[in-house]
Design brief:
Immunoglobulin-like; Ferric Hydroxamate Uptake Protein, Chain A, domain 1; 5-stranded antiparallel β-sheet
Length: about 900
């Protein structure tokens, strides 16, 4: 793609001190070319999932459509042809994973919420294999609430209070226990365990009061670091049945963190600059504060306050030689003093005013000693494409330029100021709300019935700048009386692809910034830009020609590959055959290259398919070794949206899950309920293989000893964690040995890959899901001579997305790779003239269609039948066109 440079010459009438920038062979032009080359060579992807509902109940289906975009072209991505979507529980454990084929950047699928899951805060995470190279911060990652009433006898509601006890934070938790009908469990025994950051800090027993309340107290002695964790509470019912409840701990204090951030990154003496404020409470959400700035003599300089989600700004001129302190006042009346960042005596500052609807006002300021004619440059880029560049000689202290917003793309634009030696010295983000980059959706509702079980026929026209567009759209229709949306906190195609996908960290209430297009909202969105960290690339890496480490290649298809060796030497020209043994019927063959490598690509098969790979030498000798290439699954990282965790999920969703109960009861009466829901209460415990994702050739979990993540102590290195924990194993340094065989180190295998004996401490303990020790001959025999000194198999927190394979005989391996999940079709009943159904229709998702296509004339349509209840219905349409323009429309109507 050509550099999209807007030459400063076109704005010459608006420039004061700036001059036209001409692309030539000077070093700065070469730097801009490096940027284009870099982002063309390493384009990135971003993902949005359109979900049918904002929250769910056990027994529901989560329906979703995925949109994958190329950040360089802003169009649907063709970099990857495979998408991974995960459902992750509160324990950061992967519960479900689907692998879906992508076509022109779109795909769709679903999760069935079976009763083995239980209620709680879950995450839906989506990414391509290629996205893993650039960090999990840019994955689609959304926290959702899943309630459970159907198979649930015990409901809890928890409240926390915090006090200081010496230097430690003391937490008091009051847990109320009741049944589905709101009747309290009185004088029942409750045993509890408190875990903070996966480490048990206390255990105990209490009894519920006559009102069903249990009070639990614990202390976090590490007060310098706020902790999160959970209370595992086990209540014994009157019939001696025990029910376990996991209650999130989102904070251990009521402290508020306040940060002051100079616009552009650095505070400079004697220059008037914006100072942004961000105040965050211990739950991770913004909390409004107010206060004053005083100098070292205690004299008040200015006042400040935040107005929205703990963010705000004030203009401040740091006088030479002075230091300043912020006197912050919190909502509970307490106060705290915070030193402002120290100001540099000399430097440059960048200031942007984005309040005008038609232009961005750019201001460059310099300290008096730098008014020396040095030539500075300003670059505005988005996705690696340059939209504005100009240069200016610093012959006065302030230079100003106006940039037309119509020349900038929708989304986050990064302005960077470069010194005369082409080093980045200041940066500033702005959000551009450019309507020309969006799709206009004109909805025709003339065919929509307002009656129960009536037909709702919708049509809509799509256009961009007056021209029809060919696009792919998804449609969700919900009963908004039962499923009440939290509009401010919605995740949608605009918030995902224009805002949060380009910001690292948590963004609170992202859709708030898109609901209104007024000056106040624009100011609040600009405060977000001033306070939120963001990096898709670092300028210094481009300047120094440092590219990202590309470990994971873009997947164009499912591939099975590996190497054939004999006596540790590659087998050249070897014959390799791939046979499907379950799920499909086909046989493929190929030959190895000069390095003994083979590959079967362009494969497409379902998730239950099993394969046999057989290899021979050119002369049909079968005693060869086959080593398949294994791509380890993605580790489950900490939830960046932890502030969205609800400590009382069932209580919050009580109205909705009771409505779901009515639906499930009706389906049960009619014999239509899928048998994924248990009809009786059970103690909610998971019976599972402790090493279910293991590559153990004996079979996952078949070992002499197994350690799981929750049994690993908090320690710096894995060898420290395992000292004295593995029976019959001793350590010399960080290398493990069996006591009976102290001359041969234990073979280390991580996610199916053999590692050197001293590799153990390269594995981060918190990344480990399970550790299996094989030391008996019955378990080590399958590993041959490599297992003579024992085997330690380490499985990281990756779910079942990696491949495991078994060796049954020389030259033969079997494998069960992750195949494509089959996307189900949403069932929507028809109530036409021939329909005689009289059953109650109590659906909460009325209609879901992931593939509504607007044709070349921009026209699209869809239809469905209303359910059998009077309610307000909410229709949400999202989609993209071939050029990557985004569209969204929300419409509500009443069914009487």
């Amino acid at each position: 793609m050509k550099l999209k440079i807007i030459y400063a010459l076109s704005f010459v009438a608006l420039l004061i001190g700036f001059t036209a920038f001409k692309m030539d062979d000077d070093p700065f032009s070469q730097l801009l070319q490096k940027l284009d080359d870099y982002t063309t060579k390493y384009p990135q992807e971003k993902v949005h999932l359109h979900l049918d509902k904002p929250y769910y109940a056990i027994g529901d289906d989560i329906w979703f459509k995925a949109y994958v975009m190329n950040t360089k072209t802003s169009a649907p991505s063709n970099i990857s042809k495979i998408l991974y979507v995960e459902l992750i529980n509160e324990k950061d454990s992967l519960k479900k994973l689907v692998k879906l084929p992508l076509m022109s950047g779109i795909t769709w699928g679903d999760f069935k919420l079976t009763d083995s899951l239980g209620e709680g805060n879950y995450r839906i995470r989506a990414y391509t294999n290629y996205m893993r190279n650039f960090g999990t911060e840019f994955f689609f990652d959304k926290t959702i609430k899943i309630g459970n009433s159907w198979a649930n006898k015990v409901f809890t509601k928890t409240s926390y209070t915090y006090t200081k006890e010496n230097a430690a934070d003391k937490v008091n938790a009051t847990i109320h226990f009741e049944d589905k009908n709101g009747i309290a469990y009185r004088e029942n025994e409750v045993s509890y365990e408190i875990q903070l950051d996966y480490r048990t800090v206390t255990k105990g027993k209490v009894k519920t009061s006559l009102t069903g309340d249990a009070t639990i107290s614990f202390t976090n002695s590490q007060s310098f670091q706020n902790k999160s964790g959970k209370i595992i509470a086990t209540i014994t019912l009157d019939n001696k049945q025990k029910v376990i409840k996991s209650i999130p701990i989102t904070a251990t204090s009521n402290d508020v963190d306040v940060q002051f951030m100079p616009e552009g990154g650095t505070l400079i003496e004697e220059l008037p600059q914006k100072i942004a404020i961000k105040a965050t409470n211990s739950n991770g959400k913004g909390e409004n504060v107010e206060g004053t700035i005083v100098d070292e003599a205690g004299a008040e300089v200015t006042a400040f306050s935040t107005a929205h989600l703990g963010m705000g700004n004030f203009v401040f001129n740091n006088q030479a030689g002075k230091t300043y302190t912020a006197k912050v006042k919190f909502k509970d009346g307490s106060e705290k003093s915070i030193k402002l960042p120290l100001a540099a005596k000399s430097g440059y500052a960048i200031s942007l005013n984005n309040a005008d609807t038609g232009r961005v006002v750019l201001k460059i300021m310099a300290s008096a000693d730098l008014v020396n004619g040095e030539e500075l440059k300003v670059v505005a880029q988005h996705g690696g494409n340059v939209y504005y560049v100009s240069k200016a000689k610093m012959d006065k202290q302030v230079l100003v330029a106006n940039i037309a917003k119509k020349s900038l793309p929708a989304g986050i634009v990064q302005f960077t100021l470069f010194s005369g030696s082409n080093q980045p010295i200041a940066e500033r983000l702005v959000f551009i709300n450019n309507k020309t980059d969006l799709i206009d959706l004109a909805l025709n509702t003339g065919g929509v019935s307002a009656s129960r079980k009536g037909k709702a026929a919708f049509a809509f026209d799509t256009s961009n700048e007056g021209k029809p567009v060919l696009g792919s759209f998804s449609v969700s229709v919900t009963n908004a009386t039962k499923v009440a949306p939290d509009e401010d906190n919605e995740t949608n195609i605009l918030t995902s692809l224009l805002l949060t996908s380009d910001l690292i960290g948590y963004v609170e209430k992202p859709n708030y910034y898109f609901l209104k297009d007024d000056l106040q909202t624009q100011k609040e969105l600009d405060n977000l830009m001033l306070t939120q960290g963001w990096r898709r690339f670092i300028w210094k890496n481009i300047i120094n020609n440092i590219g990202p480490n590309i470990t994971y290649k873009p997947e164009q298809s499912i591939t099975i590959s590996g190497t054939v060796t004999k006596g540790n030497k590659p087998v050249i020209g070897g014959k390799v055959m791939l046979m499907a043994t379950k799920g499909t019927m086909y046989i493929l063959d190929t030959v190895t290259n000069a390095e003994g490598k083979f590959v079967f690509d362009n494969l497409s098969f379902g998730d239950s398919t099993k394969f046999v790979v057989q290899a021979r030498t050119k002369t049909e000798r079968k005693f060869v070794d086959i080593n398949l290439d294994v791509v380890p699954g993605q580790i489950v990282t900490k939830n960046k949206n932890g502030a969205d965790i609800d400590i009382n999920v069932n209580n919050t969703l009580m109205k909705y899950i009771k409505e779901s109960d009515n639906y499930f009861n009706e389906m049960t009466r009619l014999g239509l309920l899928e048998r994924t829901i248990k009809l009786e209460e059970v103690t909610i415990t998971e019976k599972k293989n402790p090493a279910k994702n293991s590559s153990n050739l004996n079979g996952a979990g078949r070992a002499d000893f197994v350690l799981t993540a929750d049994q690993l102590s908090t320690c710096v290195t894995l060898s420290q964690c395992l000292q004295g924990r593995l029976p019959g194993v001793i350590f010399r340094g960080n290398i493990p040995y069996l006591m009976r065989s102290q001359n041969t180190p234990i073979q280390i295998i991580v996610d199916g890959m053999q590692m050197e004996a001293d590799f153990l401490d390269n594995v981060v303990p918190s990344d480990v899901e399970s550790i299996e020790l094989l030391k008996s001959i019955g378990n080590t025999a399958i590993y041959g001579s490599q297992g003579s000194g024992g085997v330690i198999i380490i499985t990281t927190k990756r779910g079942d997305g990696g491949r495991s394979y078994d060796r049954y005989a020389p030259g033969i391996v079997t494998l069960n790779p992750k195949g494509f999940s089959i996307s189900r079709e949403f069932y929507s009943p028809k109530y036409d003239a021939a329909s005689t159904s009289s059953r109650a229709d109590l659906r909460t998702t009325i209609y879901w269609n992931p593939q509504v296509v607007a044709d070349a004339t921009g026209k699209a349509k869809f239809e469905f039948y209303n359910a059998d209840e009077p309610a307000n219905y909410r229709v949400v349409i999202e989609g993209i066109d071939a050029l990557g323009h985004l569209g969204r429309k929300v419409y509500t109507y009443e069914v009487k």
